[in-house]
Amino acid sequence: MTNSDGIKIPLLKCVIFIVDWTKAQVVTDIFEQEKVRFHFISKGRGTARSDILDILGIGSTEKAVIICLEQDIGVPVLLKEVAKKLGLHNPGAGIAFTLPLSGINQPILQVFKTSIEKNFNISIEKEVEKVSTETKFDLIVSVVNQGYSDEFMTVAREAGATGGTVINARGIAHQGPVKFFGISVQDEKEIITILATREKKALIMQAVSQAFGINTKAGGIIFSLPVDGVAGLDLK
């Protein structure tokens, strides 16, 4: 893609990895190896029930949610390296998926422009295992008041969800509790992300919206984003 001046504009992707917290360093080491310029890490937790964890002998569901920006041409190499090191083809090893960007600020874009040719050559020299690019997945993002995530996931699973990740957050657009259309808004929030097949998305969103929507005590805001690539997950 080029702009009006004939200058190449890199096609960028937002790549998200969700792995065990203890494996976060493995991913960031690969980022350094592949010269990924921008990445951010947040701590989340898995949504497996405690009885399942006991059966599996797992004591914690702490997750690392790692977000990075990468050129489209370099994404397959990045995903292949992470999948190889973490064994993403094995159940429970983690997932990775990509989201398209609709815009980015100019200074960040300029950083990527300077390395278009280098990354193009690297991608040719390396054997690349393509990630699935069929657009059959969506990322359901729900922001609810703190304390509702377990009940939320119970309803989501009944509607077809296979799992999710919870990230603690808080609103910063105001000072103290406020009312939005007459509804009290709490500061402390839980962000629940669910990767679902497009066929199941509507059923899941409808179920959780009815039980935890903006007019309920959970005060949920629920939306979905298109996913254009996924690795480490089988949702057949």
TrEMBL record:
Molecular function via GO: enzyme regulator activity
InterPro entries attached to this UniProt entry: N-reg_PII, N-reg_PII-like_a/b, N-reg_PII/ATP_PRibTrfase_C
GO biological process, one term: regulation of nitrogen utilization
SUPFAM superfamilies assigned to the protein according to its UniProt record, in alphabetical order: GlnB-like
The protein, known as: Nitrogen regulatory protein P-II
